[in-house]
Amino acid sequence: MISNRDSKTGQALFEYLLRLGDDRLVLGHRLSEWCGHAPILEEDIALANIALDCIGQASNFLSLAGKVENKGRNEDDLAYLREAVDFRNVQMVEVPNGDFAHTIARQFLFDVYSYPLLDELQKSADGEIAGIAEKAVKEDRYHLRHSSEWVRRLGDGTGESHDRVQNAFEDLWTYSEELFFTDEVDDILVAAGIAPDLALIKKAWEEMVAKVMKDATLDIPGNDRYMAQGSRNGRHSEHLGHLLAEMQIVHRSYPGVKW
Amino acid sequence: MTVSKEKILEYLTEVKDPEIPVLDIVEMGIVRDIVVHNETLKIDITPTYSGCPAMKLIEDQIIAELHKKGFDDITINTVMSPAWTTDWMSEKTKQKLKSYGIAPPGRLSDDEFDPLNYVDKEVDCPFCESNETELKSEFGSTACKSLYYCNNCCQPFEHFKCH
Question: How far apart are the CA of B2 and the nearest CA of chain A, in angstroms?
Answer without folding.
Answer: 33
